[in-house]
Each structure stands twice: as C-alpha cells, then as structure tokens.
Amino acid sequence: MYSHDFERETVTTGDAAMAQTAWSSACDQSRLDTEMMIQLRISLCPIFDDATSWSELRSALQAKGFYMKRAKGHMHLYDGHSHVQICTCSFLGYPVEELEQRFKKTAPTRAVRKLPVRN
Fold it and tell me: For the chain, how big is the Rg over CA atoms in Å?
C-alpha cells in the first residue's frame, strides 16, 4: 500500500530534516495516536505535577524539548525543535484555568497601621 503521509515524512530535506522529532508528526495528523499520547503524558505529567511556578514549568518543559504558548484562550504545547503545535495542555489534563489558579501570584500582604483616634 502507498501512503501520501509516508511520502510527506520522507521528502523532508535541509534544515527541517535535522529538526525532526517524534512529536513533529503531529502537524501531519489530525490528532495524536493513542500510543504517542500515552508517551507524552507519561513524560510530562510529573513535570506539570511537580512545578510550583510558571518559570519552573517552562524550564522543565524546555529541558524535555517542549515549550508552551498561549493562543485563543488555550495553552498549547509545542515541540521545541520543529515548533509544531502538539496539543493543548488541557488535552494532557492540565487546563489553563487550573494552571493559572495554581501559579497565580498572590498580592503581598501589607500591614494595616491603625491611626490614633483624636478627640
């Protein structure tokens, strides 16, 4: 059997060919297959679970070869080498609203000074 998808995958040349990763095939498919999604979740869930700030999450993702970018109200996960959009963080089980709530910056507490009452 001949597949047009196979042809697209094997014709890549030049700089783009050097930047191919397992995740770059996400641009040729309408969705990730089950095996790739499971591998992605196994690899990234500990990072999302253990992160205590946005910068820690971004650094840990970068060390694994990924980055995040917000677009159209969603946080998207990208392959750091091919810059292919892989999926949303929500698809991994980490909705942007939950991440924002978890990593929100709390306003510093200010001591309230009581002024003396004059009679």
Answer: 21
Enter the tokens of residue 39: 């591998």
Report the candidate in 33, 34, 36, 20 with the shortest Cα–Cα distance to residue 83: 20
Q: Which residues pair with 75 in a beta bridge?
A: 70
Q: Are 84 and 76 in contact (CB under 8 A)?
A: no
Q: Cα–Cα–Cα angle for 89, 93, 51, nearest 5°?
A: 70
* pLDDT tens digits, 25-79: 555 555 567 888 888 999 999 999 999 999 999 999 999 999 999 888 889 999 9
What are the boundaries of each domain within the chain? 20-102
